Amino acid sequence: MIALLFHYFDCKITLYIYLTKKLFMKKFKIHLICLSFLSLIIPKSLFAQVQQGHTNQNKFRQLYDEFADPNKYHNASGAPGVDYYQQKVDYVMDIELDDKNSKLYGEEEITYTNNSPDNLTYLWLQLDQNIRKKDAPSLDKNSSGNSVTQRPSSFLKNYVNGSFNGGFNIEWVLDSQGNSLKYNINQTMMRVDLPETLYPNGIFKFKIKWWYNINNRLEYGGRSGYENFENDGNKVYTIAQFFPRLCVYNDVEGWQNYQFWGNGEFALEFGDYQVNITVPSDHIMEATGTLQNPKEVLTKEEYKRFIASKSSFEKPIIIVNQDEAKLKESAFSIKKSTWRFNAKNVRDFGFATSRKFIWERQALRVGNQKVMAVSIYPKEGNPLWEEYSTKAVIQTLKTYSKFTFDYPYPKAVSVHARNIGMEYPMICFNFGRPDEDGTYSDRTKFGMISVIIHEVGHNYFPMIVNSDERQWGWMDEGLDTFVQYLTEQDFGISYPDAIGDLEKYPSRRGDPKKIVPYMAGNQNFISPIMSNPENVYQLGPNAYAKPATALNILRETVMGNEVFDHAFKTYAQRWMFKHPTPEDFFRTMEDASATDLDWFWRGWFYSTDVVDIGVKNVKRFYFSDTPDEKASNRLKEFGYDLNNLPDMVFKIDQESDMFDSDLANENAITGSQILRDYLMEEGIDPNTKSPKYFYEIEFEKPGGLVMPLIVEYNYADGTSERVSYPVQIWRKNDSSVKKVVASDKELVGVTVDPDLETADVNLDNNNWPKRETPSDFEKFKERIKG
Amino acid sequence: MNLLSIFLLSVSSIFIPKKLDHKYYVSTTIIEFKEEKNVIQITCQLFIDDFEKSLNRYQEDIKLAPDSNKQEIDKLLKKSLKKSIVILIDGKTTDLIYIGREYKNDILQCYFEANAPASSLNLSIENTTFFDLFEDQQNIIHYKNKSIRKSFLLYRENDSTTFSLF
Known about the structure:
The complex is a heterodimer. By secondary structure, chain A is an alpha+beta fold. Chain A is 24% helix and 27% strand. In chain A, strands 7-10-5-4-16-20-18 form a seven-stranded mixed β-sheet. Chain A has a six-stranded mixed β-sheet with strand order 19-22-23-24-26-25, with helices on both faces. In chain A, helix 12 (539-559) crosses helix 13. The longest helix of chain A is centred in the middle third of the chain and has 22 residues, at 473-494. The relative contact order of chain A is 0.09. Chain B is α+β, with helices and mostly antiparallel strands. Chain B has helices at residues 2-10, 48-56, 70-84; strands at residues 26-34, 39-47, 85-89, 92-93, 97-104, 107-115, 122-127, 138-144, 149-154, 160-164. In chain B, the strands form two sheets. Chain B has a six-stranded mixed β-sheet. A four-stranded antiparallel β-sheet of chain B has the order 4-3-7-10. At the A-B interface, helix 1, helix 7, helix 12 and helix 19 of A face helix 1, strand 1, strand 2, strand 5 and strand 8 of B.
């Protein structure tokens, strides 16, 4: 296609010369001109005032203003820069659980290595438990207006009992010689003042002693705590954020000491852990790291099974079975055991302990590594947990490793904890409890499998690809939910019995059409994905579902699987055991794929725009040697003598005064002798070789997001054709574009986004001829009628 | 229930940050005005789990999908949803006619219809579904007629909205 652009006073006239066949271009002795006055702009106010300019608002402009500049720490290709550094923090801890009073005591020795080029005069530590202090500001972080409804339990909590008496009690902070260190606590952050400046490459060792009251999770909420089983008087402890932990210090935030308000999760440094945990001797425990003294803490029989499990690749070995666990429930041993765990290169530590635990382990190979897939659950989790937990762990390790890197840790543990899903390195706490009679619904089952996949998957994001959760919830939740979707689909294939009659695993998030109710919602309550988790209205869709869906669309519709998968894997491998920023992700996805995605990040991540693309108009046209009224007028304006025109042909569409429906039913060039002669001269039979039907199709884009234009053309003979026009089609006109279809077949239907792969929020304009998609309501009513 | 209804009237709430991580509480109600038929069609999408929990307050042994007792559930569903979803057209309370319900994976879709003359101007909706169950429940309302769409988010502090039908 050749376009000639004329400027005539302030009229901008675009003349399109259609050359639908390459052959037409051979000789240029006649003009095939279709006058199409696409844009005729005569600003009325031109003479009244001076036009105001504007900055670049094109949807395809690069994100130079939004992105942090690349530098020596985070380079322009999205990889760690030449001077990238991160601090190292090692912990040696002695922890003791007072089961009876639900208190946790600890002493920790911290070795802080300053790998930064900066001099440090203080260190910041996170005291996340302080969110449970009676006077925690986070208790008052929300407005509490005139609500008409209230839960009775909230009433009790809010006005009668008061809040839980939690939070760290810091007994002392000492240097390695035993001298007191000055410290100051501001809400959930503790500053420890260094006696001397800590220079680059310097190491500082210090110790902290603390204790706190463990919260009943079901009463007071929280990511960690205990569940009380009233029937037998036992507790299942799922313990995390339980010790003062070093904040991240880096080139991006300095100290990342944004307070813990409850939604924004954690930002932590990597290091090595040696943790000794003392509990009643009849407890069974799992934790981050490798158990160092199994022989000491297990019975002879348990130890035998524990060892056997290391080579059990086919099925899990039960270390403690249900009968054995049940027997212990009433024992309440007063003896103590100390479990010793070591973990290398982890960013955190969590553990679960109870005498109610059933325990199973199975080995699998991931790359060159042997990994133990572990499940630990009270009998209340059965029969669901013995059936699916370890299977879900194994599927997660396989699929995530395929899309990122081989799982580098020695084990992955799934712990059953009612009502929550929460992740820590090598260990996570997951919901999914059958009813008391042992029956469970499909929802409970799929909910449980999905949450295990999600939480075990968090080992990759953010436990290893260690983004800053406090600032960017989506970087771990969104990426994790995306790979969770892929894993769930794999799970359905690996275990067809688990999904029964369903065609595929019923993933809750990831499918583009499922994000529509959120994205089509009231803009006052929608935040861009690039928002701090504390400040969004709907955290679930904002940090989990929308970014996961966006990545799914990127993979399936924008980039294609192969190109996307390579780039995604590159990101994961570049940043494993490091701290990536959003720009590192965005840049790597482009750098490793040669796909400019600034338009995608801008629209999906930095704005709350929505997809709404439709087909506005379809016009059939044919060619004529005689100009219609519109063309005649235009030709006169240009000074042509209508009685003496050069060889030109004219487009006659349905709106033309000359439109002749009889002629329209002939071949599109029947009415143009000039074209027919020309084709003959070129040796082409105009009756058989030239397309019979010509259509001009106008697409509209009321939505703010630009997306590839996916169209299905349906023809009278029952065939159809899919065309995907690149997203760049919108770069010069953000509201509507036209395409010509030349075909031997009559066009009877046009559908935009026929497979609902773009999250289009309005399907009313997706079809020509206009067709109302029957709503679920109408379909249902029709069905019950019949 | 008595205890609950006392608080319904008088007590303002304080949000305790209760974290059931990775789960969020939301329902979607789609209201479509069919002017040519003089009706509004209401489609209410609820998580089955949430609804089961809410019915269990009336009757502990109720199970959904598969249903423990269809008639009983229909009865309770009508009762509880008509209580939590109140629609006024031009200021007058409108009777919601229950059409039926179906399951879509983990979602329960309930259908209601209400008469609304084509000349109607405004619609008010109060949707307090699950507000008594979950502290951070949010109820999305989508409205559409032939030519326009509107959307609202209702939550405890802002549990109703009024809008023009055109």
